[in-house]
Design goal:
CATH architecture of the largest domain: 2-Layer Sandwich
Order of helices and strands: EEHEHEHEHEHEHHEHHEEEEEEEEHH
Number of strands: 16
Structural class: alpha/beta
Number of domains: 2
Largest sheet: 8 strands, mixed
CATH superfamily of the largest domain: Dihydrodipicolinate Reductase, domain 2
Strand content: 15-25%
Strand order of the largest sheet: 9-10-11-8-12-13-15-16
CATH class of the largest domain: Alpha Beta
CATH topology of the largest domain: Dihydrodipicolinate Reductase, domain 2
Radius of gyration: 19 Å
Shape: globular
Number of helices: 11
Amino acid sequence: MADNSSQTPAVNIKDGASYAPMGQSEKVVEPEQFGFSVAFLDHGHIHGQTNGLLQAGATLRYVYDSDPKRLAAFCEKYPQAMVATSFEQILADQSTKLVASAAIPNLRADIGIRVMQAGKDYFTDKAPFTTLEQLAAVKAVVEQTSQIYAVYYAERLHNEAAWKAGELIAQGAIGRVLQVINLAPHRLAKDTRPDWFFDKQQYGGILTDIGSHQVEQFLTYAGVSNAQINFARASNMNNADKPELEDFGEISMTADNGASFYTRVDWFTPQGQATWGDGRTFIIGTAGNIECRKYNDVARQAPASKVFLTNAEGEQEIDCLGQSSFPYFGQLILDCINRTDNAMTQSHVFKAAELSLLAQQMADNT
């Protein structure tokens, strides 16, 4: 098995919680033109969020967290960050235009509301909400303030193969999308997880959490704005010692344009697998199909990021690893500056979250 980990030295391919891709740097602003700060480092995804913004040219200003160990680790990786003595210091900083955060999931909405009411845009890790009430409250504040509530749906935004698939679909490579299937296994690494990870009130359920990634991809690839949930299930299949953990979930949806969707999300990546998860996406169109092997090509390459395209022109294997600048981050920065809605529309952000929350609600009531 080839090991190309040297191509992406900043990525820990065994640990999904600390997965932080580094793309090709493509700056959209000059130094000091766009400042951002970071607060609440509860999830390791904050490093991916920070990497993406820095590589697009943003300037890191402050970092805040109440945990000295997390704070020290962040500052060691990003020594340019100044330590804020309080979150309020970041909210008052005039040079901070965007606040990036990876707080405990059930706290993310309230933090975002504070950020937006302070006149700044907000970039949170997924899942952005754990309840429909939080979603409604944030929608109201976005309407009042006109600030941006952005979400780090990393499984598309920060993965080369997933991004390439979207480009191919937009170019018409497989015609109209008829179905999207997402398989999203993750490594549990139970002993390394914080207590909140096993508290359903705090993490929101597996469909709210991992499922939000998958729903966002469906909406993007199928080009739809709404869908009906046909079926949803969430279970604890093999972790009786953690009764509030949901380690397996699945969702079926039909979009308003007729496209169908199925996803399986789980915490059953085997210990012997080279990466934290063998995420796959299968997309069927009227004129072709796509398979994405996002992180691993089993027994052949790890890490890997590949697209397999079949259409009227033949069959292609496209190696995407290390080939992307991850354009979303530059687009987000320009949206914040120009008050545009190009990186990901606010309605799309909210709809992906809403559908995953509704799926979780259906699973909870079954």
